[in-house]
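Exercise 7. Given the encoded structure of a 165-residue chain, write a plausible sequence.
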């Protein structure tokens, strides 16, 4: 692994859940909103609302957990602290919408762009988990199995897209 990939992997190890959740939630939003969308703008707005609300929920629940577990700082300070810590949700969700918008930009239909976004999601989930698994010193075989499981979540979205179409 390159130094950049290794650094990225170690960051993922700190909280692999947030970027993976962001990827899945963002892809689900694009899949559902894109099922019968009239424009890429509508899909983008739906994605943005879902991913931001999900991120804010993540921030609040972590702040609440801090309060319940150790009588932490005032709410506004806990929210500010957790906003940065949970940015992985947004980081995971952004490439999904970028894949969708890139597909639309090169002339694919809105429906075809959803398939591109789901394809990207499958690759992103598998790649993210593989890199984190290798950074955790899992064998290549075990890392592959973990990444395959993560990718299967993307295939569930593919099934949803086929069902909704």
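Solution.
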């Amino acid at each position: 692994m390159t130094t950049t990939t290794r650094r990225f992997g170690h960051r993922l190890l700190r909280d692999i859940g947030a970027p993976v959740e962001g990827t899945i939630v963002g892809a689900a939003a694009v899949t559902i909103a894109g099922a019968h969308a009239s424009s890429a703008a509508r899909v983008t707005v739906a994605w943005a609302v879902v991913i931001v609300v999900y991120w804010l929920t993540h921030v609040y629940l972590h702040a609440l957990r801090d309060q319940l577990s150790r009588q932490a700082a005032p709410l506004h300070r806990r929210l500010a602290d957790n906003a940065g810590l949970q940015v992985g949700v947004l980081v995971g969700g952004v490439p999904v919408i970028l894949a969708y918008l890139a597909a639309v930009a090169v002339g694919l239909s809105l429906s075809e762009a959803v398939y591109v976004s789901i394809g990207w999601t499958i690759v992103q989930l598998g790649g993210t988990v593989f890199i984190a698994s290798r950074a955790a010193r899992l064998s290549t075989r075990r890392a592959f199995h973990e990444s395959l499981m993560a990718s299967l979540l993307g295939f569930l979205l593919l099934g949803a897209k086929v069902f909704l179409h």
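Remark. The chain has one domain: 3-164. Students should compare their own answers with the one above.
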